[in-house]
Specification:
By secondary structure, the protein is α+β, with helices and mostly antiparallel strands. It contains nine helices and 14 strands. Strands 6, 7, 8, 9, 10, 11, 12, 13 and 14 form a nine-stranded mixed β-sheet that branches. Strands 2-1-5-4-3 form a five-stranded mixed β-sheet, covered by helices on one side. The protein is globular, with a radius of gyration of 21 Å. The chain starts with 6 loop residues before the first helix and ends in a 5-residue tail after the last helix.
Amino acid sequence: MAVVSNAKILQKYLSLEQHGSVQVEYVWIDGFNQLRSKTKTVTKVPQSAADLSEWNFDGSSTGQAEGHDSDVLIQPVALFADPFRGGDNKFVICETFNPDGTPHKTNFRHACKKIMETHAEAKPWFGIEQEYMLFDPETEKPYGWPKHGYPEAQGKYYCGVGAGKIFGRDIVEAHYRACLYAGINISGVNAEVAPGQFEYQVGPCEGIEAGDHLWAARYLLERVAEDFGIAVTIHPKPVKGDWNGAGCHTNFSTLEMREENGIVAIEKAIKKMSQRHMEHIAVYGEDNDQRLTGKHETGHIGTFNYGVANRGASIRIPRHVGKEGKGYLEDRRPASNIDPYRVTGIIVESTFYPDA
């Protein structure tokens, strides 16, 4: 069941004066790689996450603690404008910590930030392509699909235009504008290969910002879809059968790769990543084996290969990069349900892994 937001009634209350108070939505990642949030009132408009105090929540209700010792601490780390409440109100991405101050085991940002700080001089840039599918809670099928049977086969939906091809454009447009308002570095959107499937791109972002901005964009998508009474799934194979899965292709470069003859550094990084293929796969998303089958524009999960303009490869070098001899690589292995901190972290780690 889903309840659609009543925008007209809600606006009557959102337009009320706040008398100097500011609402800040604290957002964190739970024990199931899902998002949780709750609101705190502050008396001063925060200019950065550092202006906000630490808070806590009941970890026994989020898969992050036992009931006898359930407090988990949340520390604000990345601040954004709130497109739902507007005005001076904010939302903030948070890290999770144990009561003794150590990072919680579900806090992958903490380790990622250390990696990014270690290699900050390399100026690692990321562009992440987040695919997702909209689902109708009433039919429990992808949004726009018939109640009985299946829609027409894939072919007309990718970057499609028109009724019968696109299902959920209002959600896509609302999310896009919400991201721009919030200050998220969103660079584009498009309809994907399966009906009801879409993608948005976050980046280029440098270092830790890639993970912060992707999680912030995910939060906004869930909230926007909630208003429409529609569910979002980022499972890598939301519909079994001859339908494309969903990925989180991760484009990556360093300053050296972007400069003249950067292709040498790109190929060196690819070689190092190939030597740790299964270590990468281990953090590239749950159920990724259902997606990386060697079909539907994927490489097989058990093998590593790369090539220029090859969408069936583990890592693709875009054609213009091969031609210009500099630019970036596209790691096509990550699933749509990744934790971006784990993925961006291991990519940088492997790139600068000591030579054997």
